[in-house]
């Protein structure tokens, strides 16, 4: 059946016993959508060797395309027995109403159907039964593909992904989607420090997916290059007190230096000291300056009271205001955590060799 149709089927019920019996009919439909099947009459009487006709009405108004199942249960009061009759329903989208079953099967990737997200968790609900997804900073890609005929089923082993992990291939039920549209969801490693783009290739294997008539679809392949958003890290470099002979101004405060390193060159007007926040002493003062002109390295000077000892957290606010030269927003940056104790860093984080696409290696000991 297609969406928004109504059809009826007649079911014959017979009393094979030697005595009259009353019978009742119930419909059992699993799930939330329970209005697509009704049966009349819902009760009756059968003489020995007598028959009765039940009319099953199937309505697909407001029903999504897909497969549905139910049971019509006929119960005999005299025999105290129940007979379940299984019912299966395959609902096709209206786009397939005029599909020529003899036409060649085709698979087409939608060039404008690629959506991506750079985040620690997937932008969609994780597939059921796949609790082993490795959460963390990743590139999540959803690639849309369209089949010319109604698909029976898409198994994960029918799709191959290079430079990523295939998570699931659900049918696309967006408002603007057509019947036969599926979404290939992929998790790819996020490597903005090594390369400026991430390339993902998806291959549907030849003859691995069948339509509802058992005819296979041909193979298809699609590759997409996704620009990486800029990424950042915070490193603690040192702490000292200003005084006579110091390169820092004389002060009664300790000066904590934090290095902010970005994978891409940052637009100068998009980053200020107000983008940083410090969770610690209330009298913290901030100063921010670029290390080298056109370099994605910034130094943040935090002035702490000498008499403050304890944990300090340095945050870079995740408000998408910091952008690279191509107007791509910065990924959320993990905060830097340390403790000030006797003018030293207990949890010291030193800068190690860090490569960015736009700069050479930087080493700070």
From TrEMBL:
<dbReference type="InterPro" id="IPR013783">
    <property type="entry name" value="Ig-like_fold"/>
</dbReference>
<protein>
    <submittedName>
        <fullName>Uncharacterized protein</fullName>
    </submittedName>
</protein>
């Amino acid at each position: 059946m297609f969406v928004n149709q109504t059809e009826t089927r007649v079911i014959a019920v017979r009393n094979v016993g030697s005595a009259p019996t009353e019978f009742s009919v119930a419909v059992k439909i699993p799930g939330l959508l329970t209005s697509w099947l009704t049966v009349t009459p819902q009760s009756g009487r059968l003489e020995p060797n007598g028959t009765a006709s039940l009319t099953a009405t199937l309505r697909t108004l407001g029903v999504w395309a897909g497969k549905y199942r139910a049971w019509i249960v006929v119960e005999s009061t005299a025999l105290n027995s129940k007979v379940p009759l299984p019912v299966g329903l395959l609902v096709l989208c209206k786009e397939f109403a005029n599909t020529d079953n003899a036409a060649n099967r085709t698979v087409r990737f939608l060039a404008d159907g690629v959506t991506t997200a750079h985040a620690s968790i997937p932008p969609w609900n994780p597939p059921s039964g796949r609790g082993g997804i490795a959460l963390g900073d990743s590139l999540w890609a959803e690639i849309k593909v369209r089949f010319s005929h109604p698909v029976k089923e898409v198994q994960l082993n029918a799709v191959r992904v290079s430079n990523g992990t295939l998570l699931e291939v659900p049918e696309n039920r967006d408002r603007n989607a057509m019947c036969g549209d599926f979404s290939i969801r992929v998790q790819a490693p996020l490597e903005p420090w090594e390369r400026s783009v991430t390339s993902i290739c998806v291959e549907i294997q030849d003859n691995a997916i069948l339509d509802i008539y058992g005819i296979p679809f041909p193979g298809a392949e699609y590759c997409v290059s996704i620009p990486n958003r800029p990424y950042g890290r915070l490193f603690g470099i040192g702490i000292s007190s200003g005084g006579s002979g110091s390169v820092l101004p004389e002060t009664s405060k300790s000066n904590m230096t934090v290095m902010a390193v970005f994978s891409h060159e940052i637009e100068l007007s998009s980053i200020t000291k107000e983008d940083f926040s410090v969770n610690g002493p209330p009298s913290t003062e901030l100063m921010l300056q670029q290390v080298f002109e056109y370099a994605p390295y910034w130094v943040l000077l935090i002035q702490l009271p000498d008499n403050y000892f304890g944990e300090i957290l340095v945050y870079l606010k995740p408000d998408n205001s910091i952008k690279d030269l191509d107007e791509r927003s910065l990924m959320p940056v993990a905060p830097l955590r340390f403790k000030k104790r006797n003018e030293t860093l207990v949890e010291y984080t030193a800068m190690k060799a860090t490569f960015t696409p736009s700069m050479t290696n930087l080493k700070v000991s």
